Amino acid sequence: MTETTFDDLSSPDWRAKIATLSGPARARLAERARNAPLFAHAYAFHLNMRFGGVTPLQLAEFAYEQRLVGLKVHVEDGEAASLAGMSDAALSDYGTAVEQFGLELHIETSTTQKTGLSDAVRIALATGATSLRCYPRYEGRVSEIVSQTIADLRRLETFDPEGRLRYTLEQHEDLKSEELIGIVKAVANPRLGLLFDFGNMINAYELPLPALAAQAPYVTEVHVKDCLVQQDRDGWAHLACQTGTGHLPLHAMFVDLLLLGQDRPQVLSFGLEEEEGYFAPALRFPSEESDPFIAARSASFTDIGTTDLGARLRQEAIAAHRQLETVRTMLNQIAAEALRIER
After folding, report:
1. Which residues, 6 or more positions from 241, have their beta carbon under 8 angstroms from its beta carbon?
2. Which of 88, 132, 164, 292 is most buried, with most CB under 10 Å away?
3. Whether residue 11 has pLDDT greater than 90
4. Alpha helices of 216-308 — where are they, by DSSP H?
């Protein structure tokens, strides 16, 4: 594999890209930027849901108050109040409450294994959710992980025989774009697509825009965040940071994602996943062998640190609100640029 320099390729001119578009394409981009389907994401309140008593219902209230389209909730978010711990009746009540707020619900899980995936499907169906995100977390050779994930995801038709849910497979720091695409093609479920995370390709030693270009035909949902890219051995780690202060080409990714789909937007949700302080090490390397070994790893979590807990929880909540303001400003800038009359 050829070594790549991140700094050389990470800051394209998004305005120049818009200038090359036809008039109809610019109008379509402006309309989509103004009406982008923004979703609250539970990870933006990760520490508050682990240590501060914030519940999935309170996340729905946040989404409603901030005039968002929906929310994305992991089955384990909220500790004792998590969806995974609810009875079927409680799940139904939660889904009804979300619906009464006028919000769309997406469920997330951090596995593709049979038991965890089937339970996540059960939770999604019980709450009236429309979408379920998953990703594999296996130890083994990449070829083994790919094969096992294909077998796992072929069970989705059994878990959801009526086809009530859409599904997304997320690039989650270990598999490369071509491997994810291979999984989706092999599973051949028309309801399965890819979830594009703004930063997770970094750990797989991929650049954001080439990764997006490769995944684009299959991307239906997005996680929005920013990060600082750090050298880690001969690969890249990422340290999540305040959106707009990191190394990622945020405007350019938004432009490319908003343009996906001709008659209707291909991307159905942009989850606001502020993760300030989250660290993920390099998992793929330019010097790796052809079928590298991926070690076992836990689901994502952010270290609480040793500072004052109350202050840290307040900081996280402020960051979640700030990200929403930043993203809305970026989308407004894109819309304005797309509508600007060139002289």
Report:
1. 226, 227, 228, 276
2. 132
3. no
4. 250-258
